[in-house]
Specification:
heterodimer, A: 399 residues, alpha+beta, endopeptidase fold (from Nostoc punctiforme), Immunoglobulin-like, 2 domains, six-stranded antiparallel beta sheet, 5 helices, elongated, B: 232 residues, mainly alpha, Leucine-rich Repeat Variant, 0% strand
């Protein structure tokens, strides 16, 4: 009886953690943030208003006919730092251009749990604005009409109007030009993620939307910076980013052919190749972690390895996986997870393999086993061990 | 016979003269105008906001008589992309039909910077001219167009310019492979309240694979018919 209760409890805990893995942490309607080029972001580490930083609304998939792969998108108002762009629908994987030195800050969502209706409404507001113009003179910033959007203004308005997507909510006018966006506040906001108002004579405000920025010919502009919204810790909470946000770094696990994915207890299989490429103009540091998911759903996580690639560098390395002789039989998953230095997921590639009884297998290749042993003896081969499982990483070949 | 030859030659010389004058006009480099463009260029390269703003203000005041200078600058690929963007904006504001051909060439050229193409799309939209519309429709309907956002920008332009000549292309786009283009087409048809799109929008409402597109179709149908629709 007691054993059954413990088993049920363990099953519940395992299911809970397993569910947590499958569920994407980043959800439609969440807000993603990045710096401008060279890692600069106004209010964070720069006082150059031409390096404002940036944010956008993650909208998930937009299904196209004939698309087999899953493509995830972000809606972002672009146009501030010397570009003529619009409110655009772009791939989330291209949100950060690390070749420009842009850095990803992370994702956030409302502290108040967003139900699916509000998420749908936020998406609707974002998608409706795609193709609209950027507010180049910063007269409005939060819409609600065409050519009146900045990046942070759009995210703010989408949350404020999450209950009324057909009638965008804005604060009452106080008689000045386009004061909708920084007026006295509206009682109709669904989610007010940054308090309305101007912090006069403060070039960067952390408490309300508009900073007072010296701009041109002694004129000041009231500007809503993305980092102000990012700092609203009582209104927004962090979300783990579990989808790629930059296409300047690529990582690919090339699985062995389908006929080679059967391995016996005590055997090994491989090599399977990992290719990594950094097309940006700066060094890229990242973590790599291999894992094995057993047939019962439990996971063997190997030690996380810290590594990096120089600008423009591509490398390949080969992995072998050694199976414990006492391993259970069945279908396993081998995967490699890559995260950046802020633990945002960059890539997670995996493939399945089957462990069969050692007596029934004819796949053990003694010649290959000797070769693997030789490789393991080399000083620059890395062997990771976890619970009887071994991953062998043979020396990298740089291009 | 000799008289006819004389007339023919006169016509040819006249045409050549007009062409030369027109060409000289296009090639004219007004030093003052050139300075504005050079200042703008300098401003963008050095990230000097004051220089950009003052040059931009000056360019916004350039009149129709300097159209040749502006077309030359627009076509000059060695110029900073934002200089060309600002020139395209000005040509659009002036509704200069002389610039339609140059603007169309850039709009349709997929090797041009996307910023310049967006600006030419906006400028052509403002022209309210058949030739300009044809160029916009060509890009909007081009299956090989890689800059998808440009199509969405053009769709919104059709709405802003109340361009009912684009209705057929928009209805066709409701069945496009690109989910976001279907969304934009449904949105613009709804906002323009196009009665003849109701049947196709109802098909989208029933069959589109994307939930956001179905929701958008329902809202557009409500806007057109005044009836209530629920997405499947």
């Amino acid at each position: 009886m007691f054993r059954n209760i413990i088993a049920s409890l363990l099953f519940f805990v395992a299911s809970f953690f397993n569910f947590g893995k499958i569920e994407a942490a980043l959800q439609r309607g969440d807000i993603v943030y990045r710096t401008s080029k060279a890692g600069d972001m106004y209010g964070k580490n720069s006082w150059n208003p031409l390096r404002p930083g940036h944010n956008g609304i993650y909208v998930g998939e937009i299904k196209s006919y004939g698309d087999d792969e899953h493509l995830y998108y972000v809606v972002e108002a672009l146009g501030w730092d010397f570009t003529y762009e619009k409110v655009m629908l772009n791939l989330l994987s291209e949100f950060v251009d690390s070749s420009e030195g842009q850095e990803y800050l992370g994702a956030k969502t409302s502290n108040v749990t967003l139900d699916s209706k509000r998420r749908d409404n936020i998406i609707q507001i974002a998608l409706d604005q795609v193709g609209e113009g950027y507010d180049n003179d910063f007269s409005d910033q939060k819409g609600p009409d065409c050519n009146q959007w900045t990046c942070v203004g759009l995210t703010e308005k989408a949350y404020e109007s999450a209950d009324t997507p057909d009638v965008l909510q804005y604060a009452s006018c106080n008689g000045t030009v386009s004061s909708d966006c920084y007026g006295t506040g509206s009682t109709n906001y669904a989610l007010d993620i940054t308090p309305d108002g101007i912090d006069y004579n403060n070039i960067f405000t952390t408490t309300m939307e508009m900073s007072d920025v010296a701009w041109f010919k002694g004129v000041t502009k009231k500007i809503f910076f993305p980092y102000t919204q990012y700092l609203q810790y009582t209104k927004l909470k962090n979300v783990t980013t579990d989808l790629p946000v930059s296409n300047n770094f690529s990582h690919a696990l090339i699985s062995p052919g389908s006929c080679e994915t059967e391995v016996s207890q005590g055997g090994f299989f491989g090599p399977f190749t990992i290719e990594e490429s950094n097309t940006s103009s700066s060094y890229y540091a990242f973590y790599v972690q291999s894992y094995v998911i057993k047939p019962d759903g439990t996971t063997v996580n190997f030690k996380q390895v810290s590594t990096g690639l120089k600008a423009g560098e591509t490398r390949k390395h080969s992995h072998y996986l050694s199976i414990p002789s006492w391993s259970e039989l069945g279908t396993f998953t081998y995967g490699v997870k890559v995260t950046d230095t802020k633990e945002n997921l960059i890539d997670d590639d995996s493939f399945e393999f089957t462990v069969v009884s050692s007596s029934s297998s004819s796949s053990i290749n003694k010649k290959s086993a000797r070769k693997l042993k030789r490789l393991m003896r080399k000083s620059d081969t890395q062997v990771l061990e976890e619970g009887g499982w071994h991953t062998v990483i043979v020396p990298e070949q740089y291009k | 016979m000799a008289k006819n030859v004389k007339i023919m030659l006169s016509i040819i010389f006249l045409a050549m003269g007009i062409a030369t004058i027109y060409h000289q006009r296009l090639d004219a480099q007004d030093p003052e105008i050139k300075k504005y463009f050079d200042d703008l260029e300098k401003g963008f390269k050095s990230e000097d906001v004051e220089l950009i703003q003052s040059a931009r203000e000056a360019i916004r005041k350039i009149g129709h008589e300097k159209i040749g200078d502006m077309i030359n600058t627009l076509q000059d690929k060695s110029r900073h992309k934002m200089t060309r963007v600002i020139v395209a904006e000005r040509l659009g504001d002036l509704k200069s039909t002389e610039a339609i051909k140059s603007l169309s060439v850039i709009l349709e050229d997929q090797t041009e910077p996307k910023d310049v193409r967006y600006a030419t799309a906006d400028a052509l939209g403002k022209m309210k001219n058949k030739e300009a519309l044809n160029s916009l429709l060509k890009v909007f309907s081009n299956k090989e167009e890689k800059e998808r956002n440009l199509k969405y920008v053009i769709a919104i332009g059709f709405r802003d310019n109340n361009d009912l000549n684009a209705v057929d292309a928009l209805i066709k786009a409701l069945k496009d492979d690109d989910g976001m283009l279907r969304y934009k087409a449904a949105q613009v048809l709804g906002e323009l309240k196009v009665q003849k799109s109701v049947k196709t929008l109802e098909e989208v409402l029933r069959n589109d694979p994307d939930k956001s597109v179905r929701r958008r179709a329902a809202r557009s149908l409500e806007a057109i018919t005044g009836r209530s629709y629920t997405p499947e």
